[in-house]
Amino acid sequence: MAEAGGLGEYWRRNLRCLAVLLGIWFLVSYGFGIVLAGPLDALRIPGTGFKLGFWFAQQGSIYVFVALIFVYARLMNRLDQEFGVSEE
Q1: In DSSP terms, which residues pair with 44 in a beta bridge?
Q2: DSSP-H helix ranges across the chain
Q3: Phi and psi at residue 44, to the nearest 5°
């Protein structure tokens, strides 16, 4: 188990990771899907013809959210192993 000082570092890095991933999620879902949807609609996804802003609003932000869940799980497993609090 991690010592008290290490535990503070563990939570600091955990929260920093969480803040970065939530920032990415906010940027993609609100920024690309709502605020920048108009300018992104000038671009089309190759092979589909879908406007990029529409795609982010309808599907892209969901795909990014699911990908961020897997990224968070992987980063947390690494952090847990580094600080000796792994479940394995």
Answers
A1: 51
A2: 4-26, 37-40, 52-55, 61-82
A3: -120, 145
List 51's β-bridge partners, or say none.
44
Tens digit of each residue's pLDDT (9 = 90 or more) over 34-53:
999 999 999 999 999 899 99
Backbone φ, ψ for residue 46 (5° rounding): -55, 135
pTM of the model: 0.81
- Segment 60-70 mean pLDDT: 95
Residue 70 burial (10 A CB sphere; 0-12, 13-18, 19+):
exposed
Residue ranges of the domains in the chain?
17-82
Helical pair 61-82 and 4-26, crossing angle rounded to 10 deg: 170
By the 8 A CB rule, do 87 and 73 touch?
Answer: no
Report the alpha-carbon distance of residue 81 to residue 76 in Å, rounded.
Answer: 8
Q: Average of pLDDT values for 56-66?
A: 93
Mean pLDDT of the chain: 91
